Amino acid sequence: MPRKHPIAHDYRLVPAAAAVWATAVAGLFLSWQAAAITGLAAGAIGLAAWRRAWWNRTCAIALLVSGPLAAAWVGGHVLKADTHPLRLAANEGRGTTLTVELTTRPKGIRAAGFGGTQAGVENVVIRATANGAQLVLLAPADGWRDLLPGQEVTVKGSLAPPRGGDLASALLRVRGPPQDVRPPPFWQTWADEHRDGLRQASAVLDDEEAGLLPALVVGDTERMVPRIVEEFRTAGLAHLLAVSGANLAIICGAVYLLTRRLGPRPAAAAAFVALVGFVVLAGPEPSVLRAAVMGAVALLALVMGRQRSAVPSLATAVLVLVLHDPALGGEPGFALSVVATAALVLVAPKWARALKKRGVPNGVAEAIVVPMAASLATAPVVAGLSGQVSLVSVVANLVAGPVVAPATVLGVVAAAVAPLSPHVAEVVTHVAGPAVSWLVLVGRQASAVPGAAVGWPDGWSGAIALTAVTVAVVLLLRFKKTRTLVVAVLVGGFVVLVPLRVVAPVWPPDGWKVVSCDVGQGDALVLATDDRETAVLVDTGPDPGAVDRCLKTLGINKIPLVVLTHLHADHVGGLDAVLTGRAVGAVAVGPLKEPAWAWREVGRRTRAHNVRVVEPRAGERFALPGLELEVMGPRRPPVAEDENTTVNDYSLVLKAYTRAGRVLLTGDVELAGQAALLGERDLNAEVLKVPHHGSRYSLPAFLEAVRPRVALVSVGTGNRYGHPSAHVIDVLRAAGALVLRTDKDGDLAVLPGNRIVRRRRDGLGQVVQRALPDRRRHAGPRMGAVADQLHGDAVAARRTQARFRLLHLRNTRRRHPRRHVPGDDHARAATDEGRVAGRGVRPRRGARVRRRTANRAGRLARLPLQRAEGGSPVAATDRGVARDRGAGRAARGRRPAALSSHGLARDGRDRAVRHPARSQSGSGTRVRPRAGRR
């Protein structure tokens, strides 16, 4: 029978729990002095409340006792960790050999592949104790991955200071495998057998479902596909990948419902046994212990229907757990558990009653308010951790919620029967398969919604800011006067944002032809065709989630050709995500099948999706509607070496002919590969994918041969390889190219009409930018081939201007008048001004160099004639090389002037040069250009 009056909760232990938690946070993130001050201040408040009868007597006494107790307990633990001998040795970076006892299971650190290094788990993190101090071990995966909590091992390594925020005294970087390994406790062996059984039984499912089921049941994410992790994070379903109070509530609730006919006490005892067994199965990690207590609170409050005891139970759980292990106070998972449970206990019932009053059925109302309350309550913590806010989390949790409980229960059953009968476990796993597939589908579709997650400041500042915004909105909604205003603002924002994000998305831009995807430290470039939703993909980047997200935003569902320029991890890591859910015609690879592990992985992935592998040769062409690809290289026979440089130099080099111009795709070719391409074919292109992420191993002659107007550099933010090289960027910019980088500009789209659209990572929208004009095409009249050759020496001209500027500064105090010369076109003038073959213009000793105001175009027009006659390179003089009238630094940074005012320039043809006889009396040669037609 529904209650007529709201439940009055008991908040007497809440101040004490909050004081203990605040003391732990102050001690972990500040110092032991801060913990002592916080705890004593809480005790003083409790004493004042008890003496002046501010609160209930029990509430004041609890705060009076818990404050000083937390100050002494937490402050003592923090002081011990800071002054332990291992901390002093860690500050000096000493090496040591220790016998430690493991307290947690090894947790793998997934590293993104780059070059010849395969992506995967290379190191593990383990917590341990030694000599009364807590340690964090960073060990290699080989030899350490299969260890269990409770084992004692001997380790060798070097000590380092910990990151802070916990009670660890040092970080130990382990060298080599463990030594003197002792057997684990029997219950840990039992739990490990059941976990392995679940993992093996899940192998009958597809790769994505096989990795998700163990993570959903016991938090085992070792075989999780990175793409699923990224999608669940964007959709707000990441909490399903970790053991939480919901798992324990589901298991204990299922056991209680099955045994309730035996009576309340036998059913409660059975649920408690299931609780203990699940804790042992998942492992005695702090997160599992948190989930045990929080799950028990949720079971008591929601399943057994004793809502009045929910708040005291939650406060008691916080008191007991934080005083037992103060490090829990600084763990984000602990905060998520407490805040979510508090929202379910305090907020969800009120919202459910409000919906019921408006005619919503009981079950539907609870199904709506539970994910909504939990999502809103935990949003500040999630935003502080991930730096983004999911806008689809409520809907995604609402749709995914009904299948979580069946999948979890069936997974636990499979783990329980796996050691006894593996075939039965596989059958149970097959039954759970549809539910797990539904979770994968929900996460994928939710993450594909435009604007599913928006950027938000991370860290403490982001969490506090979102908390303030949430509290302000909730408070304003409670008052009738401001409720209309808040609703109007929310509706207005919805009306504005939805058309921008969904109806008329800002990305991709209409008419795009080339997109360089921001995939981190790797390459992924998309070439559009005239067919909608069809494109060619060149390389797949290191991360499956990044390239999949890029293709989704572009709306690409059909890929006739995937080109893998070479088999390094940062170019093939996302292949599986590209092949999944899309129609792929073929995968093209280069002649060198190294490294071997990457070639095996490509073969396995393509066979699993029934996609054929082709090996194009130099000179072959691929024709598609609106797109043509020509294979430029490599033209050398492959050499069986797996060195990074060799593999890079054998990258497939393609030239794409698009409606936005020619695009040269260079893979990671370095010096030898670029030198082999020089002189083979025409390398000229409007767009250049800069080789090897802009590394310094690039030939200036190669970049000059391409002469791009737009240079795209695909590079990761803050990479440790020094990419891109400042020298390469300077060479490209000096040649007139517009250089764009994915680490700073995000996704880059090239459109016809020399337009570039950038999509930044921070979600600020797109910036339309035109590339620099092609310096090979001048709008003004031209002088002919000789003038073109002179204009090609722009760098030498700028250097000559710099020399004149320096000489002008050196001669500022010399006031000698310049000796009169017959004329600037007289041969003697060149001698007087110190012209030397190959060295530009040099002033004679004692002469003053001045910037003249004569006609620049006319004087510059005579330089080609002098060059054609003398045969020696003549650099520009101090007049006529800059666009404006500036000199020095201002003039050097500008482009050559258009020659429009001289008669030779207007004629547009090269003038014939007459070689007059040398005068016996003169000391030079006079050049007389033959007059042309006007």
From TrEMBL:
Keywords: Cell membrane, Membrane, Transmembrane, Transmembrane helix. The chain crosses the membrane at residues 20-47, 237-259, 266-282, 288-304, 334-352, 364-386, 398-420, 459-477, 484-507. It is found in: Cell membrane. GO terms for biological process: establishment of competence for transformation. It is a multi-pass membrane protein. Gene3D superfamilies: Ribonuclease Z/Hydroxyacylglutathione hydrolase-like. The keyword Zinc does not apply. It comes from Lentzea albida. Residues 821-836, 904-913 have a biased composition (Basic and acidic residues). This is Competence protein ComEC. Residues 521-717 form the Metallo-beta-lactamase domain. GO terms for cellular component: plasma membrane. The keyword Transmembrane applies. Residues 841-854 have a biased composition (Basic residues). Residues 813-934 are annotated as: Disordered. Pfam families: Competence (PF03772), Lactamase_B (PF00753).
